[in-house]
Structure formats: structure tokens, C-alpha cells
């Protein structure tokens, strides 16, 4: 099973009187691992598509008398037949199964592209701030965030637990940085401590495994 790479834009609302440096420290903490798990695991369970080889293994028909229930169009130019017996345009069912692992008509289930037990390998979080200049780093780190909701761009890498040696806890590399503006750019301003990747062990209440199936 391949690694899973996710990118999410989240709204982060820090406690009152939190500084930028304190927010970066939070993004490098085990508690942040738990926070991200609570957000990404339900998403993966709900939205994981079928394995990519599914369509290649399905029988193709030159013609089908019924209409495709996805686009409601006639299937005069060919169709795909699912194991449950339902038929769809090739392009329609391809797009459908990339997002879901069930038949649109009867909910017949295919094996998911992402399934099994995973461990979080790394979380890279970028806090988006306006009005940041490279010469401002020390001043920015001491700035109070005033409890305002801010945007953060988070990249998460998860690896199959079967590829890792048996351990009670798995190290998770946590990185945090500041980027200019409402979206990440190539010009990132990092704190000195953020330049060095440092591993944190996922400790309770963070589980050592995340099961996605």
C-alpha cells in the first residue's frame, strides 16, 4: 500500500493572548497530531475511492439499452458492467469510483484505494499571516494573535503500519512555519526552531495506529 499524502486548509482559532511562537509550538506538539487525526480520519473513511485497477478489470459492452443513472444519458456508444449487474458510461463510473467505492445504484462495495491501518509519519503546518516581511521574524514570533481565527495549511503524510517495525508509539516529524498572506507561497518565513525537523512521539490520547477501513 502506498503512502497517503493530504493537504488541508483549516481555520485555527488560538486561545486569547497566544503569540505566534506559541502557535508554532502547538503545531509541533503531540496534541496537534490528535487534533489532525480527528479531522482527517472521518474524511478519509467517507471519501476514499475504489482501487485504481477496478475499471480495468470490469467487462465492457459495445452497447446498452438502458440509460446511465449518473448522467441520465443513453449508452448507445458502450458501457461498463459492474459485478452487481448495473451499467454506466465508462467516463461516468470512472469519475464516480475515484471519489467513492460503491455502485451508484445498489451500493455494491469495491475495495477502497485507502484502507487498512496507517501511522502518521509527518505533519507540516504553515500559519498564514498578512504583513510579514523577512526582516520581521523576531517581532512576528512575539506578536499576539488576539484569539482571531487564522488560516493554516497542513500537509500530512501517512504510511501503512505494516511497513514499520512493531512499536508502542511511532515517531512523527512535526514542522511549523509562517507564510505570507492568506495562502502559502514559496517565500516562507521560519522561526529558527522550525528550520530543524524534530520528531515527536505520538502519546496518549493519540492512538499509535489509525484504521481506515
Topology:
Elements: E1 4-12, H1 20-27, H2 30-47, E2 60-61, E3 64-67, E4 74-75, E5 79-81, E6 87-88, H3 90-99, E7 117-129, H4 137-141, E8 150-160, E9 171-180, E10 188-189, E11 198-201, E12 210-211
Parallel strand pairs: 7-9
Antiparallel strand pairs: 1-8, 2-5, 3-4, 5-6, 7-8, 7-12, 9-10, 9-11
Key attributes of the depicted protein:
metal-binding; Herpes Virus-1; 7-stranded mixed sheet; 12 strands; alpha+beta; zinc ion binding; 30% strand; zinc
The value of Rg in angstroms is 22 Å
Chain-averaged pLDDT: 78
Please outline the major beta sheet: 7 strands, mixed
Low-confidence stretches: 183-208
Cα end-to-end separation: 13 Å
Classify the secondary structure makeup into a structural class.
alpha+beta
Q: Assign a percent range to the helix content.
A: 10-25%
**Number of E-state strands:** 12
Subcellular location: Membrane
GO molecular function: ubiquitin protein ligase activity; zinc ion binding
Keywords: Membrane, Metal-binding, Transferase, Transmembrane, Transmembrane helix, Ubl conjugation pathway, Zinc, Zinc-finger
Catalytic activity: S-ubiquitinyl-[E2 ubiquitin-conjugating enzyme]-L-cysteine + [acceptor protein]-L-lysine = [E2 ubiquitin-conjugating enzyme]-L-cysteine + N(6)-ubiquitinyl-[acceptor protein]-L-lysine
Amino acid at each position: 500500500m502506498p503512502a497517503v499524502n493530504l493537504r488541508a486548509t483549516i481555520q485555527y482559532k488560538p486561545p486569547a493572548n497566544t503569540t505566534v511562537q506559541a502557535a508554532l509550538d502547538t503545531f509541533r506538539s503531540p496534541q496537534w497530531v490528535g487534533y489532525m487525526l480527528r479531522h482527517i480520519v472521518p474524511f478519509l473513511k467517507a471519501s476514499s475511492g475504489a482501487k485504481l485497477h477496478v475499471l480495468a478489470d470490469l467487462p465492457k459492452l459495445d452497447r446498452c439499452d438502458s440509460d446511465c443513472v449518473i448522467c441520465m444519458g443513453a449508452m448507445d456508444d458502450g458501457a461498463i458492467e459492474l459485478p452487481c449487474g448495473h451499467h454506466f458510461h465508462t467516463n461516468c463510473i470512472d469519475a464516480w469510483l475515484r471519489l467513492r467505492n460503491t455502485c451508484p445504484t445498489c451500493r455494491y462495495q469495491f475495495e477502497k484505494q485507502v484502507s487498512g491501518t496507517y501511522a502518521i509519519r509527518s505533519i507540516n503546518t504553515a500559519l498564514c499571516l498578512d504583513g510579514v516581511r523577512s526582516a520581521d521574524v523576531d517581532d512576528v514570533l512575539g506578536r499576539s494573535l488576539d484569539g482571531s481565527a487564522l488560516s493554516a495549511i497542513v500537509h500530512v503524510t501517512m504510511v501503512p503500519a505494516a511497513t514499520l517495525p512493531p512499536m508502542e508509539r511511532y515517531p512523527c516529524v512535526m514542522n511549523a512555519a509562517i507564510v505570507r498572506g492568506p495562502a502559502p507561497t514559496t517565500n516562507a518565513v521560519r522561526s529558527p526552531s522550525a528550520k530543524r525537523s524534530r520528531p515527536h512521539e505520538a502519546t496518549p490520547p493519540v492512538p499509535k495506529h489509525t484504521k481506515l477501513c
